[in-house]
Design goal:
- The chain is mostly helical.
- It has a domain at about 20-65.
- About 60% of the residues lie in helices and about 0% in strands.
- It has 3 helices and no strands.
- It starts with 10 loop residues before the first helix and ends in a 10-residue tail after the last helix.
């Protein structure tokens, strides 16, 4: 009689063990960071050079904004 359902006999031993929620959350966060990093670097041969260019461009824009705000380096109007 006990052998009519053999698949239920070892069901508890075959169950997949899931990690605790904190470990699972950490693994998901790491996977998301990895996917995002791969996506941003797709098609770029040298991502470090691209970052340097972006920073340099931001610095030059910031300098031009500060010089324009202080009144120096821009066009000067003369009324005569």
């Amino acid at each position: 009689m006990g052998m009519c359902l053999p698949c239920l006999g070892g069901a508890e031993d075959d169950a997949a063990v899931t990690p605790d929620p904190e470990t699972r959350r950490r693994q998901l966060a790491e996977a998301a960071e990895k996917r995002q990093k791969e996506t941003t670097c797709r098609g770029i041969k040298n991502p470090e050079a691209l970052e340097r260019k972006k920073k340099k461009l931001e610095e030059t824009e910031k300098q031009s904004m500060t010089s324009a705000a202080s009144g120096g380096g821009g066009l000067k109007w003369q009324v005569g």
